Amino acid sequence: MDPGILTFDSGLEAARACGADTFKLLDAARRARGQATLAVSGGGTPRIMFEWMAAQDFDWFGVQLFWVDERCVPPDHQLSNYRMTRESLLDRARIPAEQIHRIQGELPPEEATRLYVAEIVKFLGDRPVFDLIQRGMGPDAHTASLFPGEPLIGDHTDIASAVWVEKMKQHRVTLLPGVLESARATFSLATGPEKADALKLVLQGPSNTMETPAQIRSAGTVWYIDRAAAAKL
């Protein structure tokens, strides 16, 4: 199998391996450039990874933490990606507040986007290159908040955008393909039988990011999958 595809017996093993490799990459980036930049995603599988990471003895100094996307809800809302990350990682690992750069989903979507872009530019410039972007994939092969058929998939210029997700009847803010593609590394975590059809399409189907957004990749993309998700490969 492709060396960029790592298969594990369970979702827990995949999540732990992704977390362990995240620590290694962040440490290397910090030694090379004085700080490390990480953008994380929401969802159930990342929660497992974050809980494992929070229990490890890792020095978070100099790691600037951003989000791949966010629902336009308050930070304490049950659907907030920030809330999930805070509960599973931030509070436990005691990451300094000044290193946490959340999307302010409680604001109007366009304002939240403007402020988030400004925060990214402050740390990474107007052509941002993240050291690592952690991404997931939905059963419909969406990634970030870029769903099949979304016109923003064609935007390789802007950093982030507000987006209306018709499928969810929900406003969100998401990083855009140009930023996702320019990351030094991308760790994509996909586990569970409900991901098997999408994963086969993403990894073995025709290249079509407009219909299969999870095919958006950077030069250093690695997939962490379990046997259930890999069942149809």
Rg, alpha carbons: 16 Å
How far apart the termini lie comes to 9 Å
Number of helices: 6
Please write the string of helix (H) and strand (E) elements.
Answer: EHEHEEHHEEEHEHE
Summary tags:
Rossmann fold; 6 helices; 3-stranded antiparallel sheet; single chain; alpha/beta; globular
Q: What would your notes on this structure say?
A:
The protein is an alpha/beta fold. The chain has a single domain, classed as Rossmann fold, CATH 3.40.50. It is 33% helix and 19% strand. The chain has six helices and nine strands. The strands form two sheets. It has a six-stranded parallel beta sheet, covered by helices on one side. Strands 4-7-6 form a three-stranded antiparallel beta sheet. The mean pLDDT is 96.
Write a concise synopsis of the structure shown.
The protein has 233 residues and is α/β, with parallel strands linked by helices. It has helices at 11-33, 44-54, 81-93, 109-124, 177-182, 196-204, and strands at 5-8, 36-40, 63-67, 69-71, 132-135, 160-165, 170-175, 186-190, 221-226. It is built from six helices and nine strands.
